[in-house]
Amino acid sequence: MKRCLIIVIISALILLGGCSQSSGTKTSDGLQKISIMLDWYPNAVHSAIYTAAAKGYFAKEGLDVDIKMPSETTDPLKLVAAGKVDLAISYQPQVVMARAEGIPVVSVAAIVREPLNYLMVPKNSGITRPRELEGKNIGYSSLEFEQAVLKTMVKKDGGNPNKVKTTDVGFDLIPAITSKKVDGIDGGYINHEKILLEKEGHPVNAFNPADYGVPNYYELILITSEKEMKQKQSVIKKFWSAVAKGQAAVTKDPNAALKTLYKHEDSTFPLDHQVETKSLHILLPLMNNKTENYGHQDLSVWNNITSWLYKKGMIDKKIDVKKAFVNLD
């Protein structure tokens, strides 16, 4: 269903309504408690957060930060919206769709400024551009957003998207393409799936959706609820100030940052150190803002992705983008 994610979030909000958290309290040494939920298990994209904690940047801002991991991919957005966590890492298109359904979440920083989610095909497939996917079968990971991206890319390149078959392969993107169950995948990250495929001897051609008709969007953003933003704006600013210092340290010494990250490796999601090293080097230029402060968000990016989602029928109405994000700088 088109809005299955949003329906799940709304249902969760109803169940969680009235619940509150204790992150507004202080520790015995006077530090302000604040919680953040990651988008997934600790990996290279979270290096700035763990570096900020290790170097004491949060403590210097008077903060005691509780870093949480999600059980489900919908957890970060729905728990922020329900007031169960102060902050979370989410995705810009998700936030636009949530706000279109009246869910009061707001972005406070752009973490990854460009798409990581690419269209990938085996290098030996002979496919060198999206329009050559006509007659092929592309696997995607359950989200209608990915299908809309695929169709846009094929059409923009002069192909007929109706001639491209799609198969929902869930999270089994890598097995689907390596076993030749599908001819390509949409939903793989260039800093994860692409690296793993190449390491396993399956090099791929990867196509950036922003090069084929999909507006550039922020892959990962830091979000909070409108209520939390009003009540704890100064605390959230302190949090981001510490993360920005962490990002500067990561940029200066990526290897040291990775060593810090590995100390927080989750046993259920062990990290391949070679993969994370390559991942971080891919991420850094996509995270650091060349002209503005780290995390700064552009109104044009929000306008463009909102218009595209509306045009593709992913939202029924355009949102007031000026209320969807706040710059902390």
Structural class: alpha/beta
Quaternary status: single chain
Number of helices: 12
Biggest sheet strand order reads 2-1-3-10-4
Gyration radius, in Å: 20 Å
In a nutshell, what does this entry contain?
By secondary structure, the protein is of the alpha/beta class. The chain is built from twelve helices and ten strands. The radius of gyration is 20 Å and the shape is globular.
Structure description:
The chain is α/β, with parallel strands linked by helices and 329 residues long. 40% of the residues lie in helices and 16% in strands. It contains twelve helices and ten strands. It has helices at residues 4-16, 47-54, 57-60, 75-81, 92-100, 144-156, 173-178, 193-199, 226-252, 254-262, 273-287, 299-311; strands at 32-37, 63-68, 87-90, 105-112, 117-122, 137-140, 165-168, 184-189, 204-207, 220-225. It has a five-stranded mixed sheet with strand order 2-1-3-10-4, sandwiched between helices. Strands 7-6-8-5-9 form a five-stranded mixed sheet, with helices on both faces. It is globular. It starts with a helix and ends in an 18-residue tail after the last helix.
